[in-house]
Amino acid sequence: MHHSKHSHGEHHRQGHRHGHDERHAHGGFGRGERGGHRHGPGRRRLFDYGELRLVILSLIAEKPRHGYEIIKAIEERLGGAYSPSPGVVYPTLTLLEELGQVAVAQAEAGRKLHSITGAGTAFLAENDAALRAVMVRMQEAAGDQANNPPAAILRAMENVKVALRLRLAEGRLSGEQADAVAAVLDAAAVQIGRT
């Protein structure tokens, strides 16, 4: 009886894994698919798995690329509005290789260089309308980002807030310490005004 329960549980896990792999392998263009990176809490994700797969494949079609180059290319085209997670990009590259849409060669420092195959080119052609729709959305996201402070400034602002919060959490500042922190902030404000 115990063996039967174990077999049933194992079958259920295998079935669940197979279903997930099959959805991933077929692209998953529906909005219900999980996997897009959210830029900030509560925001709609920019890509689903299938759309990100198309974007990655189109970048490789332009020229052979390493995984890191693909991540940076997407960041640049979106003006910093979105940065795909390596935990999504690298499994997608592995999937494209398994599907025969991408060929992989070992390059310097053991990095993998990805180039598109005939099957990959055919897949892009079959999904040209979907790819163009994603590219339009990318342009819109980049345009929206242009009206926001640059990502580097937002990161630096957050660093200052975190540093202040941690310093104040250590305990009450003496008058001398408070003056020193204020002097650093005042100097930064003056420098920013002159930049």
Helix coverage percent = 55-70%
What's the architecture of the largest domain, going by CATH?
Orthogonal Bundle
How far do the termini sit from each other?
A: 75 Å
Strand line-up of the largest beta sheet: 1-2
Whole-angstrom Rg: 23 Å
Chain-averaged pLDDT: 75
**SSE-based structural type:** mainly alpha
- For the record, the CATH class of the largest domain is Mainly Alpha
Q: Going by CATH, what is the homologous superfamily of the largest domain?
A: Winged helix-like DNA-binding domain superfamily/Winged helix DNA-binding domain
Instruction: Classify the fold: give the CATH topology of the largest domain.
Output: Arc Repressor Mutant, subunit A
Per DSSP E runs of 2 or more residues, the count of β-strands stands at 2
Q: How much strand content do the residues show?
A: 5-15%
Tell me about this structure.
The protein has 195 residues and is mainly alpha-helical. Helix content is 66%, strand content 5%. A hairpin with a 5-residue loop joins strand 1 (102-106) and strand 2.
